[in-house]
Specification:
The chain has about 450 residues and is α/β, with parallel strands linked by helices. The protein has helices spanning about 20-25, 35, 50-55, 55-60, 110-115, 130-140, 155-160, 215-260, 270-280, 280-295, 315-340, 405-415; strands spanning about 65-70, 95, 105, 120-125, 170-175, 195-200, 300-305, 345-350, 355, 365-370, 370-380, 385, 390, 395-400, 400-405, 420-425, 430. The model is unreliable at about 1-55 (pLDDT under 50). Pfam families: DUF1501.
């Protein structure tokens, strides 16, 4: 990914945001049983740098947040938001007119076409990483993977800088599975910045409720105190860092388990009409949960959907995915806007790269990082625009190339996060939140 948005009151039955603090999160928890650990999956320059750092506290008070809709496997740009109907590489995909004159999306994205006035579509994303794991790592951390350091995620940098002090939930939450099950967290900053993983929206995280009648808060605290004593002897024998991480994991899990306001993770109190707008799918429910979490003060939420690695049967598989993502994405934007949350909530739709312009012999598209698309909305982004373009055949970027670093820096700018803030790696090397790149200023013009 807390102090409430100033214009909102907690929904009935929802937690008051002052009940769960970061100080408690990092102090209170001498932890629950092994079941408790299972509740958490572990997984610059001016004018933007110094000015953003100075305004970080203001951003905390405003409740800035980001929702990332992560399309794991790399969606085809041609069958989403950058169709090429007049070229053979377009694969025969039909288009649908959008609310922005002269802009068309691929068929199957009719709801998003109606919402185009809120969207900034970048059609000129470009990168060098064509491997799923490496590109996903880069999109999440701002760095290419190396064998010497586990970089903190951009989410960790966001949470560190702008997550409000008072919170009733973890500051960063990941919803749904993904390719390889990889979670990107605190890296060398520590496990306190790892996200809570919710496997399936609409259900409580696993093992957060003790068995009825077996444990109460006093017994939990007693067991945690005993565990700390046992850990202490190991720490004295040189296991200090291991013990600190172990206790941190248990600390986070235990406070979550003992918090009385876990109902935010369920969707039972949402009207059926709203659930229908999002769609009766795991992804739709994930997007609805993302709105609930942001409304409750969570700073960083990622909703994941796999199935985009379409080396074969590309057109049918993308159409099936679009049938889930199109209503959920558009409903999320409308819901945030209706609740007065969209101005302070950035929504990013992206995958790790794009697909080849040429369709292969199996009716699929292969890996293609040279040119793909990403979509942003809210968070101060000016909607109703397309940034950049590719050549008629989609093979190369023709106008306004935007790198992964540029995209991540732009997200930091929207959130008031200083992308040039440096952390010292375990080897003593200063590493910025995002290594390179420039803000795409057209997004905010």
């Amino acid at each position: 990914m807390f102090a409430p948005h100033a214009h909102l009151s907690p929904a009935p039955g929802r937690a008051a945001r002052g009940t769960f603090t970061r100080r408690r999160f990092l102090r209170d928890l001498s932890m629950y049983s092994a079941a408790g650990a299972g509740a958490l999956s572990l997984g610059g320059s001016l004018p933007f740098g110094a000015a953003l750092a100075a305004d970080a506290e203001g951003m905390r008070k405003r409740g800035k947040a980001i929702i990332v809709l992560w399309m794991a496997g790399a969606p085809s740009q041609f069958e989403t938001f950058s169709p090429k109907p007049d070229h053979e590489n377009g694969g025969g995909t039909e288009t649908v007119a959008t609310a922005v004159p002269g802009v068309a999306f691929a068929e199957g994205w009719e709801n998003m076409a109606k919402a185009a006035g809120d969207l900034a579509v970048i059609r000129s994303m470009t990168n060098n990483e064509g491997n799923h794991q490496r590109a996903s790592y880069q999109l999440h951390t701002g760095y290419a993977p190396t064998g010497s350091v586990r970089h903190p995620s951009v989410a960790a940098g966001v949470v560190q800088q702008i997550a409000p002090e008072a919170l009733n939930l973890p500051a960063s939450v990941t919803i749904g599975g993904a390719r390889g099950g990889e979670l990107y967290g605190g890296g060398f900053l520590g496990v306190q910045y790892d996200p809570l993983n919710v496997g399936r929206a609409g259900q409580l995280p696993p093992n957060v409720r003790p068995a009825a009648g077996e444990l109460n808060e006093r017994r939990v605290r007693d067991r945690l105190a005993l565990m700390n004593k046992l850990d202490g002897s190991f720490a004295k024998r040189g296991g200090g860092s291991v013990v600190r991480n172990h206790r941190e994991i248990y600390r986070q899990a235990s406070d979550l388990m003992l918090d009385p306001h876990l109902d935010v993770f369920t969707l039972d109190d949402e009207p059926q009409s709203l659930k229908d707008r999002y769609g009766d799918t795991d992804f739709g429910r994930g997007c609805l949960l993302a709105r609930r979490l942001v409304e409750s003060g969570v700073t960083y939420v990622e909703v994941r959907m796999g199935g985009w690695d379409t080396h074969d049967d590309n057109f049918n598989r993308v159409a099936a995915n679009a049938a889930q993502v199109d209503p959920a994405f558009s409903a999320l934007l409308a819901d945030l806007k209706e609740r007065g949350l969209l101005d302070d909530t950035l929504v990013l739709w992206t995958g790790e790269f794009g697909r080849t312009p040429k369709v292969n012999a199996r009716g699929g598209r292969d890996h293609f990082p040279k040119a793909f698309n990403s979509v942003l909305a809210g968070g101060g982004v000016r909607g109703g625009q397309v940034i950049g373009a590719t050549t008629a055949d989609g093979m190369t970027v023709a106008e306004r190339p935007v790198t992964v670093d540029d995209l991540l820096r732009s997200c930091c700018h929207a959130l008031g996060v200083d992308a040039d803030h440096e952390h010292l790696s375990p080897l003593g090397r200063p590493l910025r939140v995002v290594d390179k790149g420039e803000v795409v200023e057209e997004l905010f013009a």
